[in-house]
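Lab meeting, action items carried over

1. Structure of the two-component assembly. Owner: GW. Status: complete.
Input record:
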Amino acid sequence: MSDLRELYQEVILDHTKHPRNFGALPHPTHRASGRNPLCGDQLVLTLEVAADRVRDARFAGKGCAISTASASLLTEAVKGKTTAEAHELFARFHRAVTAPAGDEPDSAGLGKLAALAGVREFPTRVKCASLAWHTLEAALAGASEPVSTE
Amino acid sequence: MTAPASHLPARPRLDAEALAREFPILARKIHGKPLVYLDSAASSQKPAAVIDAVSHYYRTSHSNVHRGVHTLAEEATAAYEAAREAVRSFVGAESAREIVFVRGTTEAINLVAQAWARPKLRPGEEVLITELEHHSNLVPWQMVCEQTGASLVVAPIDARGEVIAEEYARRLTPRTRVVAIAHVSNVLGTVNPVAEFAALAKRRGALVVVDGAQGVPHLPVDVRALGCDFYAFSGHKMYGPTGIGALYGRREILDAMDPWQGGGSMILNVTFAKTEFARAPERFEAGTPDISGAVGLHAAIDWLRALDLEAVHAHESDLLAYATERLGEIPGVRLIGTARERAGVISFVVGDVHAHDVGTILDGEGVAVRAGHHCAQPVMEHFDVPATTRASFAVHNTRADVDRLVAGVHRVLEIFG
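Predicted assembly:
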């Protein structure tokens, strides 16, 4: 195992202890819930999308440090992005967290989200980092069923 | 003056360090550190005696059982039936015909729910369980209630994690057909007063089913002293292989039950018009059973009994008391489950750090624990926590293992500080 500090970086600990955009938007245009049955992690993501651009995003729920930080960072990252840019960001993020352990991750364009690339060394925790993103995809797709990482 | 040492009594005589050397896997290093295995309640590790028994069986005696007249078929059958006799003696049953081999506790409970309860339960009748049950002693009953129109009734636990005796007694009514309770809670370690609860249930004429998955590894079990009708357990939580377990059922009850699954081995005579079923236990063992698993379970029983179950219980109680004391001293650690009678496991939460983060950090220190809801979501709800970290003990654990756990928890606090 690489150093645990690789996983629990300052950015992640900061977002876990002080989640940004926590709560629910009063008038969301999009909403989805996600859960990780293995951990019991649950979150609800609400979005305000206008003219194909994410104007606002909030999340509520409970989970481990990785899933909470990931959701918090996601809400910051997608605000102001077009839906196409949000999908593209998810694709990049997904590649970074599922890259083979030991590989130098391609964190180009990820910004603060790069802090989560450390989970690639911890295969059991990749789902924690991905939950919010799968929920985002579901929200944008207008899914009515909760998404599950299983 | 030196700092006061632990006020706990001197350690009972069981040489855990020597026993640890009998488990090949415990020689492993995890992330460069010697493995401390504190997850036996999920699945215990196997001593060489068990691994070798399974290997020896396949190398020398394997064949199918209860058919064929050749030498190997006879040897395999003898080994399989010897395992049944070992289980009988282990749980104190009267007859080996009262022992049904199954895949594990879950299958055993489903067997009782489907083969005993499903044909008998009527709308308005009740199945009584407790709030601390593992999903395996909850979901099968919920399913059979759904199928029959019966109701599932739950006896609550208190803040310590003990089933409240008066509440349990109050829920026993003439409508109660089945009482299903854990011998030992897999999350809280609570030892339920099974004999007392069973006696009360019998007075109401209810069937008593005990989930013994966490009982057999830690406590001497005597099904007749407990007064239960069924006792279910798994081999893999008591040093045996995965895929094998046993269901004890009182003979007159088993004999009166219809089969659960049909197929080979469970018949006396088959025509297209009608099949006559074998008597118990064969009636409930359709298909080729897990023969090597039974052989491994037999070896595990012999190995465990050679240790003296009273000494095992004393040793593990010492570890539990020591862990309770050491973890309890750490600021921010909250113990979940403080029943007066406990065995085998200790659950806790570390401040508001999620159990999975605790588990990952402990793993980094070479300490294997379980983190999550432990297949007991209602228990998590009762204590208002999403998940807990659980350390569970086996005969090979020592106080030094607990010290490694405690050091790991300090590391968690350091990272999340």
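2. GW to write a short summary for the group page. Key points so far: Chain B has a mean pLDDT of 95. The two ends of chain B are 32 Å apart (CA to CA).
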